[in-house]
Amino acid sequence: MSTTTAPRPADPLEESADRAFRLTWPAVLGALALLALAGLVSVTQGAAGLSVEGVVRSLLGALPGLDVEQTLTEQQQGVLWQIRLPRTVLAALVGASLAMAGAGYQGVFRNPLADPYLLGVSAGAGLGAVLALGFGLDLSWGPVAALPAAAFVGALVAVSGSVLVARGSFRDPATLLLAGVAMAALFSATQTYALQRLDQAAAREVLSWLFGRLATHGWAPVTLLLPYVVLAGAVLLLHARHLDVLRLGDEEARALGLRPARSRLVVVVAATLITAAAVSVSGLIAFVGLVTPHVVRLLVGSSYRVLVPLSALVGAAFLAFADVGARTLAAPAELPVGVITAFVGAPFFAFVLWRGRQDP
Description:
Strand content: under 5%
Number of strands: 0
Number of helices: 15
Shape: globular
Order of helices and strands: HHHHHHHHHHHHHHH
């Protein structure tokens, strides 16, 4: 006589946990819709207004096999394809890079207030920019201009110094974090000294870059940044599960077959590489890597398998919207986009701190 076992009723807690660790289609579609809206607003708003219909027709006409009647003039087409669209794509790539790096740093350091400018990244990049703009340092190679190259090398030197000071101590994230603070202070002091040695015109140009800017004419910065976003972003996405396991503690992670020190090293290197690449083409744009993961965490959950990909999409949309504000709020003048992100990020940072103090 055979017996059949009745299916075990679903546990509501297990179902809730499963949803928290799963990337759902509504969340992805919502983030994509936000990014599409940000992109459309970004390419249509500015000194030379472009109609939504004209932009959509131009974009569709660029697809192979589609013959769409164009309503934009030749001059407007040039503005769209050589100025607006490259700048919008660059803003999206920089925003996605900083947001993914922020999520990665927060997972490695188990600190929700960590952001991509840990380990001296911003200070090193800033010093490289000062040396390139003010003192003529030329580290250019191939299509890479002197300024992005110097900023990139400066960021990597600062991070390497942090790792050396910490003696590669990825088992203790706090040690690496403190080493980063020390290196950032050293590079910032050197940067300030170098700025004081410049004349007024050169110092103004350097400060403009340090505040963050996305001005571009053509696709060169996009092609420079894109490979780093693809490669380092793929590493962060593939290691999102590792960050979830690391939240349990090193002993539990080892019991599950994970090597905690190696996983932290890979995530830190990938996050730093993608941050350095973004800084090299956009300057120092703060708070994107802090604000975006927090917003996503509040809306959809704290699993890094959800947090990393959605932070990329929301971060891209956030910086695209911020760039619209930078171009329009003080028109015809243009504000540094880093000022806009600071106006949004600083109050948010204060709110997070206040909320943490209020929680029992």
